[in-house]
Amino acid sequence: MKGGDRCNAQKTHCPQGHPYDEENTLWYRNSRRCKACDRARANQRYAQGFKPTTPPFRGSAEFFSAHTIHSQDGCWGWAGRIDGAGYGRWSRHLAHRLSYEFHVGPIPEGLVIDHLCRNRSCVNPVHLEVVTQKVNVRRGVIARANGVG
Ligand SMILES: [Zn+2]
Ligand SMILES: [Zn+2]
Question: Over 90: is that where the pLDDT of 88 sits?
Answer without folding.
Answer: yes
